[in-house]
Amino acid sequence: NTAANTKYLATSSTDDAGNTSAYTFNGAGNRLTSTDALAAQAVLTYNPDGIVATATAPGNGSNRTVYGYNTDHSSPLSPRWRGRAWARSG
């Protein structure tokens, strides 16, 4: 995980209809938030290695997905449906 030059990352985009989405990034250049023209916001957090730790979809502020990985990060672990147990994927 290294520092990125975030000044070159797009902080917003506008579609042909004039709808603007905004983005925020951490110092490593990982996207933290995406907010659409209706103010719906997706949020990502990262572990110290820069790998996604949690993801929250727009409208699900209290219902986030938590990701886990084995110690060498070669195989992601993801929660099974309804978050009942961890399941290996990939």
From TrEMBL:
Superkingdom of origin: Bacteria
Q: Where is the composition biased (Basic residues)?
A: 81-90
Q: Where is this region: Disordered?
A: 68-90
InterPro entries attached to this UniProt entry: YD (IPR006530)
Q: What is the protein named?
A: YD repeat-containing protein
Q: Which organism is it from?
A: Tersicoccus phoenicis
High-level lineage: Bacteria, Bacillati, Actinomycetota, Actinomycetes, Micrococcales
